[in-house]
Amino acid sequence: MDPFLGQVISFARLVMESMVPFVLAAQGTMLAGRTGLFNVAQEGMMLVGASLGFLVAYQTGSQLTGILVAAGVGGGFALLLAYLTTTLKMNQFVIGIALFFSGVGISTLLPKLAIGVTLMQPLIPTLVDIPLPLVSRIPVLGPVMFSQNAMVYFSILISILLWWFLYKTKIGRDLRAVGENPMAADTMGINVTLVRYAATIAGGLLIGLAGVYLPLVYTGTFTEGMVRGRGFIAIALTFFGGWSPIPIFYGSLFFAAVEVLAYRLQVGASHIPYQFLQILPYIATILVMMFSFYKSPVPRFLGENYDREKRSQT
Amino acid sequence: MLEQTHRQARLRFNAPGVLRQTLPYAVALGIAFALAGIFIHLMGYDVLRAYQTILFTSFRSANSFVQTILKFIPVTLLALAFTVPFAAGKYNIGGEGQMIVGATGATVIGILLRDEPAILVLPLALVTGVLFGAIWGLIPAWLLLKFRIHEILTTTLFNFISYSIIDYIATEIWRDPVAGHPTTIPIGDSAWLPLVVRNPPLHSGIVLALLIAAAVWVYMTRTTGGYEMVATGANPEASKIFGIKTSRMFMLSLVIGGALAGLAGAVEVEGYQHRLIVGLQSNFLQLGLITGLIAKGNNFAVPFVAFFIAMLEVGASAMQRTMQIPVEFVFIVEALVLLCVLLSDVVRRREWIRSSVR
After folding, report:
1. Which residue pairs from B65-68 have beta carbons closer than 8 angstroms and sit at least 24 positions apart in sequence?
2. What is the mean pLDDT of residues A146-174?
């Protein structure tokens, strides 16, 4: 094979692989945001998902159990967020910030409790690639798209599914109505509280999954702060994608490409100090936001709690 | 009508009023410690001994009291770096990054001008740190006003950028070859903050932190600028109608926040570390946020809560040494205290609604 083509294929493969945490976390954020609940705790939720998911997978020897537990703990955090904001009407940002640093703290505490301080990093096997029959043999597209790990497929499927759900079903339309105008939705007989809870928890499951992907695919172990801002980049991504599943998916590809590029340059171009390359994804995020935030169609009630008894809503 | 407001104002300072203010805190503390105690017990540790260690270590020796003060200084400044923008309705999660660039600024001056007299270098290093922090707060403010990018996003992204900056300076520019951990060479002693207590050594950063905390409180509660900032946070639309330049208030609040965190970094370098160490920000961002939120954004309460948090932290490291309980345990306690304090607000609001309905 042409060596240049080989390079391109391996680059594209890596981009597909690195896209997953962005896709899952951003879709999770979008889902809650579409009902008006602005989750800013992703970074902490992903860290707990990564930490607990890794520990469970390590102790039980089952990757699937680890994945499910990570999703569960993401959902648990989201339930707490929904309860404190939607039911108790606390400020969404204050609670989000509190959950964010609680997640950071819990994620470092858990491994110390479960394993203690060890000299050797405990390792779990990473996810294997599952080449799909027939389609994986298509040249170029096959190795890039169809011989990836299961969570790559899952993140593609969930993006399509969310698009179909939000724009083609009645429940999806109701859900969007809650974020655009909760009073009108309420008078139409939509249960605003229920919709917000459901969307936030479903989003939390996805964010937990996004977290556990990191130890399961990249490192095989949990390290402190391993999410490295991906949670916040995911928020940026939802604005970039206009709170809509398909553009968010493309945006994730872009951010994954920047991440892979920065990593590749760190390995390849040793004359550039690696610190300059490390900041590339963050600079790219800020630049992209400068051009997309202004126009981004944001759910009108994003970040606002809905109180039925209050007469005027902003 | 006027008579009534006067009476209310006077009421706020009498004993039952103070009690009403502090009682929820006391109840919240009690519940949080009880819950965390159950947790510690379930993990198989001696709860009583654990709490004795956490609460009293700071007062057992002069040395550990000074350790507590040394934690108190950055925690207070980082908490204020959160509460000042919070008053204006903005969320500064970038304290960590602002502290790092502040520390970097002080180090640059401390190393470059190491042979100059202290009277020049000391204030210059402090001011540079403050300035660097302020710039790190100004950029997110500019991005917010010009491009409407939410400040939670930009301030956190700038944290990650600053990790790379400190790493670059400590490994490429002024690397100390004998240190095992990425660290710069020491700053000149002309940039050292003078000590207020010689043994155990306590630097004058404590005086600075207390003065700043008082100044922030006075500014926010007793001046027009502070009043406009609080009004902006309470109701931006109404403030705008009344002629307050709200966008200027947003920007100012974030710049002040950045400056405060920058000062924390400069003080940490000039008073304590005397060099730039990768990771010097440790978990001060989290502690600052916890402090600011437990204080519910009240700048008067911040130093008191900060002392409490510093005390817990020092107690927790002693607990790790003597009882092998991971130091992060104290984090559970802190998070529970915060949760209970926040919940006490909900309870009070409900009671208020119930009584007003009646």
Report:
1. B66/B197, B66/B200, B66/B201, B66/B202, B67/B314, B68/B307, B68/B310, B68/B311, B68/B314
2. 96
